[in-house]
## 1
Amino acid sequence: MSVSLKQIRYFVAAAETGRISQAAIDLNVSQSAVTAAIQQLEATVCARLLERTPTGVTVTMEGSRFLSQGRQILAAVAEAVHGTHISAGPLFGTVRIGVTYTVSGYFLPRHQMRFQASFPGIKVELFEAPRDVLERAVVDGALDLAVMLVSNLHNNAMLASETLLQSPRRLWLAPDHPLTRAERVHLAEIATYPYVMLTVDEAKHTSMRYWNALSLEPRTIFRTSSVEAVRSMVAGGMGITILSDLVYRPWSLEGQRIETRVIENEVPSMDVGLAWRRDTQFSEAAKAYRDFMRFAVAGVGPARPPVSTDPRHRSEEAIEI
């Protein structure tokens, strides 16, 4: 028995949303179609990829590994389908790309490797720096593009941007935490428990905006620039946190479980995208990089375009690549 793109697509959707019902809505198919596809996939790989819970589904350790590969497969297929729009022949040149910490650690590598394989004649020079440094470098012409959290972009007057991926923020907590009993949690409830605050890439500043909007403040017990430290502390029951799906993994380095819950209040997504100087004239290499990233990310990850809820438009076999 072979693995189909439909099975991978349905599994990724269920894993990312945490609910079969929501995955079915996003994919515009029935719940039974999603369930059947995932069961077939699990039978083929001889491993349980999702655990069913009263509030939805969670990814197993084997499922976490498969999820990473599944995302890469879907991205590669999207790239192949749309690749003819990117370049009609070999290109040469150098493109200077700035990246922020979160982007370089959790978003860029898989796309960067495929770009280099697709455009071996283009040399990519990567520079990691904080958001404000990248903004100045792009404005000054030291960088052609920046792949960054465009939701944090400040200099909108001088910089143009395009969102590639919107990653929802959710509550992270240990499986035995009292808040796991609810499917959706209010910030006011979260504020009553010890909280671990991530500080890298202006995460503290971003999070305090939605806390302050409700005149609330988390009970912060520790601040750190390490996502892995946050992951271990949350899994170990030391505290809870709110972070995006992009950096979520269901297991800590120690092998302890991490669960997520939807936040009832309005919490902005973390948006990854491209930024460039508004009046820039792209070289062919820079243009190829920009267009490649657009197509490579299309249809991959938590961000999905709106779908019709009209039953007449539902098709169990339809998959947008």
Note: DSSP finds eleven helices and 13 strands in the chain.
## 2
Amino acid sequence: MKKPTTRKKSIADALPTVAKWLLLAVFLLAGVNAEAKLDYLYNLSNFNGPIASSWVNFGIDTAQKELYVVNPSDQSVDVFDKSGLVVHSFGDDGEFGVIRGLTLDDSGTIYLLSNIGTHFRVFVANFRGALQEELKLEGLSPLFTDDFRPDRIFCRKGHLYLVDTQQFKVLMTDLRGRYEDGFSFASIIGVNYKKRSDFDIRGFTIDGDGTIIFSIPVQSQVYLLSPDKKLKSFGQRGSSPGKFNVVGGVAADDKGHLYVADTLRCVIMIFDRTDDFKFLGEYGYRGFATGNLIAPMEVAVLGDLVYVSQSANRGVSVYRFASE
């Protein structure tokens, strides 16, 4: 009698069904088809080691290649060089009040947005945080004289942008605080004030060309509003690579890449805005191991370095962008 033909079992054949699905998930999470990736380098540190912090805010000095970090817990501002080591600190004496954010112009002058009492103020300081003056905003339209409480500040190509993400207002002035332009973008994105929670802005930035970029978690969308008020958006709800679960901070580089944090999935995703927001890859995994992320929020980009703030005193993790 002819013996039945047998074949050698592959590793995949030998695995139980559940294990096969786990193996597939590992390959997907590893980004087998990724066109870009982030390599973990280190956490921001001082001479004693990594600095513990939670959900800090960023400012970038592109000329000096330095990162400014605002820690909301003690209102200190730490300045880091490209190696991730702190080189200077200021603000912890309360001179600037409650610092909401900061930005720098091309000369290294710092503009700090602060709350003192119920009013916001803009302070001007030199590149190491020495107070020079308080900026007086002049010639404002009625849209910005009442019910305007900015929580973000940006400097782009000689213009200051003050943003109230609660009221969807953007004020633009020159570097001396003189009014240039301003508008509400609520109607542009279809805000229904009766369902305000559906439009809670989480991440917000402005790129070098003046395009406003922000994320709304409940809608699982990232929006881009150009200077001529043209609106684009992208995003899809889900838990697989490239999809948004609870979308957080956003950042843009000068090569057309968008970096998007997902606070729940604990990943940083990369998209190509020049190619219909094509998903290029992601990095991250929830956990306390080296390079992992815990509830990532704000994202900043300086050259090929990507900075990510986290919760649970995990500090700021630094990654290097690389194309596959």
Note: The CA atoms of residues 144 and 171 lie 7 Å apart.
## 3
Amino acid sequence: MQAHEIDYQIFGEEMQYVEIELDPQEIVVAEAGSFMMMDNNIQMETIFGDGSGQQSGLFGKLLSAGKRVLTGESLFMTAFINQNNTKSKVSFASPYPGKIIAIDLTQFGGKFICQKDSFLCAAKGVSIGIEFSKKLGRGLFGGEGFIMQKIEGDGMAFVHSGGTLAKKELGVGDVLKVDTGCIVGFTKDVDYDIEFIGGIKNSLFGGEGLFYATLRGPGTVYVQSLPFSRLADKIIASAPRAGGSSNEEGSVLGGLGRLLD
């Protein structure tokens, strides 16, 4: 596998975007909805699957697209092709506050495993598939970590995280315990499993769920402080109820006003 060699630069702090510079005829593929801006000479093309098997026939295309359906993603991705004789740029933005991580697959043995919603874009030739759990515990109780994506190849890929990003280097036998939703991704040698929190009080009243993920080294792990699912739950919980009003939110009369309503 030989992916296109792309240059890039990441801009911003909390709401980042990545600007990718393409040589003539170079291609980058991205998730639908991540596009931000591009030069006039770049052409957009919708492709079936991840674009890595476009010449492998109908079966290869269907297999590539089917993997994406299993992870809850769209059947299609968008390819951006530089049709000019000079270099051109295209930019992709993170969908919510956080950090964009540049993954050079050649430095990670050609494979990186990430949460199914974290992939942003990659050089043409990089394969985006699924990483099935081989352990029953992960399958039944893994939550957001049950089905993960695997990014394979020898090119650049970009994933995004929510909130503040932590990078952990695990040695042989080192164990890191993480909320399943807080995992962004990890290298292929990291062993991933689900562990019961334990204790009646923790299980019933802890508010942290019944299980957390255990990541065993060696390898590199990326952890996010604010998974999008947690942010969405907070927004839904704070949304005004039917017939209610949030005009008094933050004032002394806020709770009293809602009680009178």
Note: Helices lie at 57-70, 136-141, 200-205, 228-238, 254-260.
